[in-house]
Amino acid sequence: MTTVTTTRTAARVENAVKVYGSGDTSVRALDGVSVGFPAGRFTAIMGPSGSGKSTLMHCAAGLDTLTSGTAHIGDTELSTLDDRRLTLLRRDRVGFVFQAFNLVPTLTVAENITLPLDLARGKGSREWIDALVDVVGLGDRLHHRPSELSGGQQQRVAVARAFAGRPDVVFADEPTGNLDSRSGEEVLGLLGRAVRQMDRTVVMVTHDPVAAAHADEVLFLADGRLVDRMEAPTADKVLDRMKAFDGASGSEGVRS
After folding, report:
1. Whose CA is closest to 137, among 109, 114, 165, 118?
2. How far apart are CA 116 and CA 119, in angstroms?
3. Are 30 and 43 in contact (CB under 8 A)?
4. How many whole angstroms separate alpha carbon 18 and alpha carbon 193?
5. Domain spans of the chain?
6. From edge to edge, which strands make up the β-sheet containing 76-77?
7. Strands 68-73, 169-173: parallel, antiparallel or unpaired by DSSP?
8. Which parts of 147-209 are beta strand (E)?
9. Using an 8 Å Cβ cutoff, are 79 and 71 in contact?
10. What is the CATH number of domain 9-248?
């Protein structure tokens, strides 16, 4: 399924193919995926285990390379960049939120949030950082270390850090996977507010229909192919669509 978008895309892949291994043991994790992630929108990627959703995110973000096809951040094609320029692009134009919070334990909350700016030797905007701190609700925790925070608070720090440099797009890989339902809802609400109130762009991989319901649109992958998409998702609608994969056999591009 080829996706055509008319709005500005923060990131996109075209005819993306990713093959791991070779010969009889090779695995085709992505099988000709073309999709754009619109700027200023919250997109979720879902699919059964092994569908290629994390591979798609990693290749779109420049964390992994495609076997064939192209990946772009804005108008920049990632395959044209050498290692140094790709590292700089990921630092300056891409934010990441992972299931494991990946905070630096020796730094305070404030220092963790501004770490991308410090690494880039950029001061950034004090007003922007203050606005982020306000949105994530951590104004009274800025001098704490990660070990002094709950899991939900640590993930909120990670979200603020991801947005600190005003990247073109933030990729979130199962960002609520290590959180209880209440903390997870807080983090998902935070990602949604960053998109809608601060004009940010988020692409999130998740297996959770409740999490996907926070997005503006859900993309569904199966066997490395884009097989469906859903605007204005609800948890029930997403769950029903995911259940359809269990009994699918060759329909809508889903292979058993």
Report:
1. 109
2. 5
3. no
4. 33
5. 9-248
6. 27-38, 9-20, 68-73, 76-77
7. unpaired
8. 169-173, 202-205
9. yes
10. 3.40.50.300
Three-class secondary structure of residue 22 per DSSP = coil
For the beta carbon of residue 57, count every other beta carbon within 10 angstroms.
Answer: 22
Sign, CA torsion 99/104/109/110: negative
The position carrying tokens 């093959």 is: 19
**Average pLDDT, consecutive stretches of 10 residues, N- to C-terminus, the chain (256 residues):** 62 96 89 96 93 94 95 95 93 91 93 83 73 86 94 92 92 91 91 90 95 95 94 93 68 36
Question: What token pair was written down for 51?
Answer: 């569908």
Tokens for 239, please give them. 């769950």
> Taking Cα atoms as reference points, which of 112, 191, 99 lies closest to residue 149?
112
Look at the block and give the residue holding tokens 């009274």. Answer: 140
Alpha carbon distance 169, 172 (integer Å): 10
Supply the pTM of this predicted model: 0.88
d(CA 70, CA 234): 32
Q: Give the pair of three-digit tokens for residue 89.
A: 């692009």
Q: How does DSSP classify residue 48?
A: S
Give the pair of three-digit tokens for residue 22: 């070779």
28, 17 in Cβ contact below 8 A?
yes
Distance CA 42, CA 217 (A): 7
* Residue 118 exposure: Cα atoms within 13 Å on the Cβ side: 8
